[in-house]
Amino acid sequence: MPQLSPASLDWYRASYLHERLAVRRVAQSLLPPVPTDDTRGKRRLERWRAEAPFSDDEWWSQRMALEHASEEQWLTILGESSHAMSQALHEVPAWVTPLVQTFACPLETSATLPPSETWSKNQAVRFLDAFGPHIQQARSRLSTRLHGLLHRHPDAPCDPATLEALLCENLPAQLLPIVLRTMVLELNVARVQELLQGDTAEARFQSFIDRMVQPAHGIALLQEYPVLGRLVVESLDRWITVSEEFVQRLCDDWLAIQQTFAPPEDPGPLVRIEGGMGDTHRGGRSVVIATFRSGFRLVYKPKSLAIDRHFQQLLAWLNARGA
User: Fold this and answer.
1) Exposure pattern of 107-120 as b/e (b: 16+ CB <10 Å)?
2) Which of 57, 112, 126, 201 meets the CB 3.0–4.6 Å disulfide criterion with 132?
3) In whole angstroms, how large is the CA radius of gyration of the chain?
4) What number is the average pLDDT over the span 240-266?
């Protein structure tokens, strides 16, 4: 079976523009001359300028100013090869390690996402099977953290056996927008090349999924689309961080929540976690609605409410003075 190599130059194709510019800016005198392909650089620059609103010179100038870069520097970065990027960046990007380890040390279980009523009728969620090893590794990491957290909070309103599954409910909504277009493209390529088996559309779709879950095809996919691999790793990392943070805060605040809201009966354990309620901010955080077995519900807003609290104090102060 082919293996992913952390030293592959393909990974450097997924380096963000600001990362390349920053390295060149900090250590320009220490780096070797950059071999660039002027034709490629100009072609890529034209693609940037073709995107609205960058066809407007003023908007384009503002975009370059955000990176503190000139158009000449922009052309150099866009025209350099993966080899030149590897020389400039020196170290293997941190997000590459989880990709390589996933295939080097696969988990025994084949489960990716738990059965979900929310996603049961959405066939597109099956595309995530192709990223099963990465999801498995992320779930394993989160599970380890949750067990340690709940061990320190034995009175938390969480059932350890179901908590991870509840958090997984929100994972497809994060990953599907990242992988969908690429997987649809690959599905059509397989169709045109007559690689799919079956007499019905359903059978051919299943044939495609069966093909993509094979490690060799999973590795080939990441080598062809390194940016996709990076985005999947970063999304899973954010999911772990945000999920653990939510549970940690719920455990820390549970006594105060009970005392403040004084539900008439025992709320019972957590039975549903609805994430993505509104826009995401600060590294993928969004409003979460937590539902408990008794029907008691909490709205969790992952931000400081100090401004809101002080504004209410100001209103109370004004009202007390007849305003």
Assistant:
1) eeeeebbeeeeebe
2) 112
3) 24
4) 89
pLDDT band at 109 (very low <50, low <70, confident <90, very high): very low
Q: Which residues contact 133 (CB under 8 A, 6 or more apart)?
A: 102, 103, 106, 107, 215, 218
Three-class secondary structure of residue 274 per DSSP:
strand
Contact 2, 219 (CB under 8 A): yes
- Distances from the Cα of 195 to the Cα of 54, 201, 205, angstroms: 40, 13, 11
Q: Encoding tokens for residue 245?
A: 């943070």
Tokens of 158: 């969480």
φ and ψ of 170, to 5 deg:
-90, -5
**High-pLDDT (> 90) share of the chain, %:** 39
Q: How far is CA 278 from CA 122, 180, 285, 288, in A?
A: 21, 21, 10, 9
Of 65, 61, 13, 64, the C-alpha closest to 40 is 13
Residue 192 corresponds to which tokens in the numbers above? 């045109």
